[in-house]
Design a protein that fits this description.
The structure is a homodimer of 459-residue chains. Chain A is an alpha/beta fold. Chain A has three domains: 237 residues, FAD/NAD(P)-binding domain; 91 residues, Alpha-Beta Plaits, CATH 3.30.70; 67 residues, no CATH class. The first copy, chain A, is built from 14 helices and 19 strands. Chain A has a seven-stranded mixed sheet. The longest helix of chain A has 40 residues. Chains A and B meet through strand 13 of A and strand 13 of B. Strand 13 of chain A pairs antiparallel with strand 13 of chain B. Chains A, B: It is found in: Mitochondrion. Chains A, B: Its cofactor is FAD.
Chain lengths: 459, 459
């Protein structure tokens, strides 16, 4: 980005989660002075209460890694991640089934949100242009004057509790209940919606020790216990443990209110997992059952003064494993949009970025909701599994022509909307092929029958 | 409502607009002590800046009047209102057309928002159980503790600027950008959306003096200049003036940027109105062009602690003239729900009220958006006008069986959702009648032709 030698553009990022930190790295690399604020204290200095950790391990895929590579931090994160080459399906009582995600080299990376944050914060601290401020709760945003008010939750003697910061650009990376977005929602013609799926989730700790009944679960897979109206999943932390999550309608979950009911439910539905959940009953009773929100808004920017990234712009449900990947892609695309442009053009730059990004994040929001059925129901259905395997074979045969939707979403940087349109086009082509082959077969059969009839000697 | 003799239930209403004032009257009649807060100053004591007055005159109909009657204030308001018996359509260059709204006794009442507020505030002040507090801006709502924080904008010496109020029930009657709703939106599973139609509106002042070209416009009608992509409407203030509003896509409106362009646009499209708009150019340039928001949320209550009414719960576009009527109906239904119930049951009472009300306000929100086309386009189409007239005739012939949708919405208290379902049922019955008549005619013709053919003497 071009700017006068005397004035370094100053960016205020609200929220030092994964997206806020990554954007800070990317913008500092463009020469911006970045101040990164978070209401919480530094998670590296405290064990942190349970509720500070997001329960679902993140599944990093190509989009996320592409953005992390641009910031020069991909390698460090890969070192702390566990590759997952496919799904491992656990039927009730049946044998484990392994479904690869794509080609042999294609895999997701399971990494805990906490580890990811730690590495990104460490990197931010190394950069001279980045300042991190913990314990600063955003209380008000003046979008016209580009001024943010923070309440300092840990005030040192003699300091004012309120801090007012004016900068060239405000970034809202402050999650599903974003304060920056709340300020934008009061501006004219800002479209906004928040909605929930019926399912809530419950985090459980799973050890991976051999029991008398079975050997350990292979850690290089995403484990799924698909049970139609609910499902259990487990993402590997390492060889020894998984982060395990039950997804289930909140109303159904509330019915499991006694230790006996909880134990019985797990014994009946997840017989091979129950022995590996040592603190099942206490986890189930003590852990919260958070809801799964979908946030949609438009536009993502307020002229050249403010912009939203990640959950603040488009919180999605976790079933496609794309929440963090989409957030990181926001950061990469936003940094690429800003790069090479004059700071005075920021209104046009942000508007173009927001307009181009909107249909893609709407698409992944829809896909993520639809994917719950894919995991909880279809992953157990032989026909759906066969279809997915055929897709992977077709992709191996025609690697440039045929790309399964899952591969385009997880193992490419093709914009989400374009991926869905291409998948639809592919489906039409396959239908046409099938129909053409069928017609050819019928014609050939007809011709053969006629020839046989004609060549039959007259009686 | 039943409560112990010692403790009078205390209700905090945020927002002293029409809905807040009416609910205060209704709840005080049930024995509640009501504190009514508004961020603005008393509109009766100041002329008020232009932007404080909502531009569109209100069209009171049966639902609004039913609620006002319950509070004992309908008569006073009717005295200050102008009855509108139907639409007066102004085609370009053609003759005026008059379309009645319904039966002869059925009419809407045009009343300014300011007049309505004044009367309601005067009534509130007369009630011992109601206290009104102007200049109190709601800054925070603690839904768990039922505590509202207000910033006093006109602080008297020695007074704290912040006021904290704890009560038995918080009511959000604070409009489209409700602070009470914002607090509810942070609670689990609160569904919310805000969206805008493309049209914005511009208020213009219209005098009603005879010009050389024409006599005065009849004041007992809602005047419409339907021009498909935009429209002008005028609601009577009295015999001498109208409140006139142009509805038009914001992007199109922005193109009218010079006095010459504005004048030319009005001369071309509204030739019979242009001479009656003495301050057209200054009005057009100086008046804002507010957008038209639709707000949907669910649920309208937070357990027994808080509830939303009016625009705070369901802001709708003004094209069906039902915004204020739906808000007043909220107040009546809420007061009826509370009446006779123990204050300790409030969670169940409010939940039942909210659940029953939700489908109805969703229905009127949809109808209001669809009605823009009815006013701007269909009102000028002969077939649509004929259909409406036939509906009124059918209603006169079968007053208990056939009720046009417009009459059910405007001249009855039938719940909105039920009105739409009944209208669909009626449409199906009419279609069946038409088909049956057609079949009968065809059969009779067939029989007649056959008989004629058979009786013809053979040649």
């Amino acid at each position: 980005m071009r700017h006068s030698a005397e004035k370094v553009p100053h960016v205020t990022i609200v929220g030092a989660g994964p997206a806020g930190c990554l954007l800070a790295l990317l913008l500092s690399a463009l020469g911006c002075q970045v101040d990164l604020y978070d209401s919480r204290s530094d998670l590296r200095k405290s064990q942190g209460s349970k509720d500070r950790q997001r329960s679902i391990n993140l599944a990093l895929s190509t989009r996320g890694l592409t953005a992390l590579k641009r910031a020069g931090v991909a390698e460090k994160i890969v070192q702390h991640a566990v590759p997952m080459h496919g799904r491992c399906i656990h039927p009730v009582g049946g044998r484990l089934q392994f479904h690869p995600y794509g080609q042999k080299h294609q895999h997701l990376l399971s990494v805990s949100r906490r580890t990811l944050c730690k590495i990104l914060l460490d990197e931010c601290e190394k950069r001279q242009l980045i300042q991190i401020h913990f314990g600063h709760m955003c209380t008000n945003v003046d979008l016209e004057d580009r001024r943010v008010c923070f309440l300092r939750t840990e005030v040192i003697d003699g300091e004012e509790a309120d801090l007012y910061v004016t900068s060239d650009l405000i970034v809202g990376a402050d999650g599903s209940f974003s304060r920056v977005r709340a300020a934008m929602a009061r501006m004219d013609r800002f479209e906004y919606s928040q909605s929930y799926v019926p399912a809530a989730y419950k985090e459980l700790t799973m050890v991976n020790a051999a029991t008398s009944e079975q050997s350990v679960f292979p850690p290089e897979f995403l484990h799924i216990w698909p049970r139609h109206r609910f499902m259990l999943i487990a993402l590997p932390n390492d060889e020894k443990s998984f982060t395990c999550t039950l997804f289930m309608d909140k109303s159904e979950m509330d019915k499991l209110s006694t230790p006996a009911a909880i134990k019985q439910f797990f014994k009946t539905n997840f017989p091979d997992a129950v022995d590996l959940l040592p603190s099942l009953v206490t986890d189930f009773i003590n852990n919260p059952a958070p809801s799964l929100i979908t946030v949609r808004c438009n536009p993502f920017n307020y002229i050249g003064n403010a912009v939203l990234v990640g959950d603040a712009a488009h919180a999605i449900v976790p079933f496609y494993g794309q929440g963090c990947n989409a957030a990181f892609e926001d950061c990469r695309l936003l940094a690429e949009a800003i790069e090479g442009h004059d700071w005075h053009d920021m209104s046009a730059v942000l508007s173009d970025y927001a307009r181009a990004r909107k249909p893609n994040v709407d698409t992944i929001a829809d896909l993520a909701i639809e994917h719950y059925e894919d995991m909880s129901t279809k992953s157990a259905r032989p026909l759906a599994v066969l279809r997915r395997r055929l897709e992977i074979v077709a992709n191996r045969l025609f690697p440039r022509t045929f790309l399964p939707l899952y591969s385009m979403v997880s193992f490419s940087n093709i914009p989400y909307r374009q991926a869905v349109l291409r998948a639809k086009w592919q489906d039409r082509k396959i239908e046409q092929c099938v129909m053409f082959t069928g017609l050819l077969f019928l014609t050939a059969s007809g011709v053969a029958i006629c020839r046989a009839a004609l060549s039959r000697p007259s009686q």
